[in-house]
UniProtKB/TrEMBL annotation, chain A:
The keyword Iron applies. Residues 316-384 form the 4Fe-4S ferredoxin-type domain. Residues 73-298 form the LUD domain. PANTHER family: LACTATE UTILIZATION PROTEIN B (PTHR47153:SF2). This is L-lactate dehydrogenase complex protein LldF. Coiled coil: none annotated. GO terms for biological process: lactate metabolic process. It comes from Streptomyces candidus. PROSITE patterns: 4FE4S_FER_1. GO terms for molecular function: 4 iron, 4 sulfur cluster binding; metal ion binding. It comes from the Bacteria.
From TrEMBL, chain B:
InterPro entries: Cys_rich_dom. Residues 3-84, 138-222 form the Cysteine-rich domain. This is L-lactate dehydrogenase complex protein LldE. One of its GO terms (cellular component) is cytosol. GO terms for molecular function: oxidoreductase activity. Pfam families: CCG.
């Protein structure tokens, strides 16, 4: 397929490879359908789901409207509780701050809690360039790191891997990173988990610096909240002497009471659990208990730009549950890597082009990576109208022009003229009807037509358009 | 009752049988139908591809064509959803951009009068048994815009269940998108085809003779695939089944 018109190139090309990968298709289908069905059951248990969803939406919207005030309140509260707050305008600044903070401790390694924000800014790579090893401790992130791979899902980063592949990765690479995999490791989930547990235990007990993100930041008390399933997060948040948290500014909520809503909707939407196994909260530092030094890096990295866009700003409500990924028919076929960002799926298709802009080929193609079927909007626990934002971003891409946009624009204008002149439309319809015996079932020459006819026959044109039938039968 | 048929551009040019079926069905139910010839396209392909301003003349044209009618009925959930969801949105943005307010007023007038066919039958006419006869096995694909934007719910199913001789088979994964998605079908043709293939496999697995839907754009995609694969299932619009009677059977 040639990239002759808008939105065509990057995502479609990457997705094509995924569509043809039978193992990947099977892994994704099995995993997404399993989580999807469980989520539906977990949500159906609550009689007040719709109200919780509406409350989550309104809390986030209200907070975002007054984000400046809440952030200053948060800074004040964190500082009063013994923490230090840093403001990072972009990824480079955030990476510089964290690297300098780790260097100042004299340590050469850190343990990490699963965090989208640190992946977004490429923190591990920045630390590696500074000679600091960052160890991922979430099981799936560990699989991704050991496999020299990229995450393909927000919640289940190794969703594209099956048990056999994971056994192979552990056996081959664990020894390069620390404690090797046990001899004769099987692909039983319990054995794989035990191998990871033993491998990670050494790192937890040794590490002096922990790095995390956060699911929520409570402005009134300066409290950070991490919601997780494995307990690795709790280890990283409590054992090291220094804790550095990198958090997007939109994670702020005003009060503890607001947590009531999200601690119900997040686990049910993401892991389909009534409540997640570990919810860690911490406020600054406490003498003799947990990390004695705490730094909070507040990350903008494009978020204030999103906030300024009246249609796009609802994207900042996202609590990273990944329910939209699990129901998305496009994600299920294309896989997470095709989205070219740490944020895959429907939320990635609207978040990435807003954070990074739409100048690159892949970013300009993301808003088009959807049929607008609306399944994502339906399950979103904070009611982000993803199809609305997708269309809004398509408009921006069309406006900015780019590869092949002139052709598409010209076609739209021409079609617009015909559709606004019914006589011309009727003439075109009659011409199509008259020549129908000569229409082929496949069209090879034109890329656009071939994209249709490679897998589908063209419809058989009727002998007369509807409007002629009407005229013949009703207007005489 | 002044009822206008909004046949939609796809049905007008490619699937006139669906439009004809709607007219026959409504006339059989005692409704006088009119077809305002000034109508063309609702503008959804343009709007969904990112050309909102190029859609505006079509919003005006569509609204003007149906001015004065009590009900505007269309055999397409997708085009009905375009009017109901996106016309007001287009109006709001026009006003916000300081380019006048005519589109909002237009939407306010048209939206409450616009009905997808099954809504009109069940909610306005109050019928589910339309006196149809179709002695075949059928499975129903509820298109996304009908399910999630319009909330058609059980209406199509109730209508089908009341058809004499018809055996309805459950379509596995019915509410999953078929992969058409307008320009998505060509911009992301590989993913679109993969989704379509899965939908067709589900349809074939039911053993039904017909894959019925209420949106011919989805059926154009699925029907094209079924024909390419010589599958033993035919795509057919719901209206054509409902128009079929013992005296005048479709097949």
């Amino acid at each position: 397929m040639s990239g002759t018109y808008l939105g065509m190139p990057s995502f479609p090309r990457a997705a094509r490879a995924a569509v043809q990968d039978r193992t990947l298709r099977a892994n994704l289908r099995h995993a997404t359908h399993t989580i999807r069905d469980k989520r539906a059951k977990a949500v159906a248990e609550l009689g007040d789901w719709d109200q919780l969803r509406e409350a989550g939406k309104q809390i986030k919207d209200r907070t975002l409207r007054h984000l400046d005030t809440h952030l200053l309140q948060l800074e004040q509260a964190v500082t009063a509780a013994g923490g230090t707050v840093h403001w990072a305008a972009d990824a480079d600044e955030a990476n510089r701050i964290v690297t300098d903070l780790v260097r100042a401790t004299g340590e050469r390694e850190v343990v990490k809690v699963k965090s989208m924000a640190t992946q977004e800014i490429g923190l591990n790579e920045a630390l590696e360039a500074a000679g600091i090893a960052a160890y991922e401790t979430d099981l799936a992130e560990l699989i991704v790191q050991l496999g020299d791979d990229r995450p393909s899902h927000i919640l289940v980063p190794a969703i594209h891997r099956n048990r056999g592949e994971i056994r192979e990765i552990f056996t081959r690479t664990m020894s390069e990173w620390g404690r090797p995999a046990p001899d004769g490791l099987t692909d039983r989930p319990a054995d794989l988990a035990e191998a990871a547990r033993l491998h990670l235990r050494d790192k937890f007990l040794r590490a002096k610096v922990g790095i995390s993100g956060a699911n929520f930041m409570v402005a009134e008390t300066g409290t950070l909240v991490v919601v997780e399933s494995e307990g690795n997060g709790r280890m990283c948040l409590t054992l090291p002497e220094t804790l550095i948290s990198v958090v997007g500014i939109e994670k702020t909520i005003p009060t503890w009471r607001d947590l009531e809503v999200f601690l119900q909707t997040l686990p049910r939407s993401s892991t389909a659990e009534r409540m997640n196994p570990y919810t860690s909260t911490w406020t600054g530092t406490a003498d003799g208990d947990g990390p004695q030094t705490f730094h909070l890096v507040l990350l903008d990295n494009g978020r204030t730009g999103v906030l300024a866009d009246e249609v796009g700003r609802q994207t900042l409500r996202c609590i990273r549950c990944s329910a939209c990924l699990n129901v998305c028919p496009v994600y299920e076929r294309a896989g997470g890597h095709a989205y070219g960002s740490v944020y895959p799926g429907p939320i990635g298709a609207i978040l990435t082009p807003q954070l990074r802009g739409t100048t690159s080929e892949v970013d300009a193609s993301l808003p088009f990576a959807s049929t607008l079927c609306g399944a994502c909007y339906e399950v979103c626990p904070v009611a982000i109208d993803i199809p609305e934002v997708l269309v809004h971003l398509r408009e921006k891409v069309a406006d900015q022009g780019g590869k092949g946009h002139r052709l598409e624009k010209a076609a739209i204008k021409a079609a617009g003229w015909v559709l606004n002149h019914p006589a011309a439309l009727t003439a075109a319809e009659r011409a199509a009807a008259k020549t129908r015996r000569f229409h082929p079932e496949k069209l090879g020459g034109l890329p656009l037509a071939a994209a249709w006819t490679n897998t589908r026959d063209l419809p058989v044109m009727p002998a007369e358009p509807f409007r002629d039938w009407w005229k013949r039968t009703h207007n005489s | 009752m002044r009822v206008a048929l909004f046949v939609t551009c796809v049905n007008d040019a490619v699937f006139p049988a669906t439009g004809i079926a709607v007219v026959k069905l409504l006339e059989r139910l005692g409704v006088t139908v009119d077809f305002p010839a000034a109508q063309t396209c609702c503008g959804q392909p343009q709007y969904n591809t990112g050309y909102r301003r190029d859609t505006e003349p079509l919003v005006r044209r569509t609204a003007a064509a149906f001015a004065g009618y009590e009900y505007v009925v269309t055999p397409s959930g997708s085009c009905a959803a375009m009017i109901r969801d996106n016309y007001p949105r287009i109006g709001r943005l026009q006003t916000k951009e300081g380019r006048g307010g005519d589109l909002s007023r237009t939407a306010d007038s048209l939206v409450p009068r616009t009905y997808e066919l099954t809504e009109f039958l069940v909610d306005v006419l109050g019928v589910t048994d339309v006196g149809a006869y179709f002695p075949h096995t059928v499975t129903y694909h509820p298109s996304c815009h009908g399910v999630r934007m319009l909330g058609l719910g059980e209406r199509p199913r109730k209508l089908l269940e009341a058809v004499k001789g018809l055996e309805l088979r459950e379509l596995p994964g019915a509410e999953e998108c078929c992969g058409f998605g307008g320009t998505f079908a060509v911009k992301n043709s590989d993913v679109s085809a993969a989704m379509g293939e899965d939908k067709i496999r589900s349809a074939v697995s039911t053993g039904a003779d017909f894959l019925c839907g209420a949106d011919n754009s989805c059926l154009m995609h699925l029907g094209g695939m079924l024909r390419r694969q010589d599958a033993p299932v035919r795509a057919l619009h719901l209206a054509e089944i409902l128009a079929s009677t013992e005296e005048e059977p479709l097949l």
